[in-house]
């Protein structure tokens, strides 16, 4: 009896998971997510990714819905490169040099946006590739790490965080940054940070978040 209950507890209830993520995708988000409105790109990625992993994405959305999702992602693209976390940060015609830092592209949102476009089979033809790579290069710090966003006067914001470095490496790979020598990041600097962040004698021992 105990063996049966353990087996039932460890089995994935796939239909229930699919219903949950379809609700997140097609109706209002659960109330608990309300405070995360500025992270809509993150929520969109994990929702679409979950449905894709469950082999339930393309069988549960129409071509017009897919096109609408793709269009929403592109509406989050920042004119100076990268992507915002949601459309609510877009200042539009009210944007100027004095308030531009309130409407920044975000490194995590940019990675999630590109990954989401890939999940939706978009050819990324509308991505401002060179602008994004140039913006990414500006986010890199002298120690090889990456910040989260560019703030007032172009100052790099965000602490040393391995997750930002992962996002940066993924963005570079997706956009083929290795083909753009003048716009490419300092790869050697990033690798030095990875090596300095090792815990123990090998990578399998884990890495610290901030080095």
Q: What does the model show?
A:
This protein is mostly helical. Helices cover 46% and strands 2% of the residues. It is built from eight helices and two strands, in the order ααααααββαα. Helix 3 packs parallel to helix 5. The radius of gyration is 19 Å and the shape is globular.
Give me a quick take on this structure.
The protein is an all-alpha fold and 211 residues long. The protein is built from 8 helices and 2 strands; from the N terminus they run H-H-H-H-H-H-E-E-H-H.
Keyphrases for this structure?
single chain; 211 residues; mainly alpha; two-stranded antiparallel ribbon; 8 helices; globular
Topology:
Elements: H1 2-10, H2 14-26, H3 40-53, H4 63-75, H5 107-119, H6 129-139, E1 149-150, E2 156-157, H7 162-175, H8 187-196
Helix pairs in contact: 2-3, 3-5, 5-7
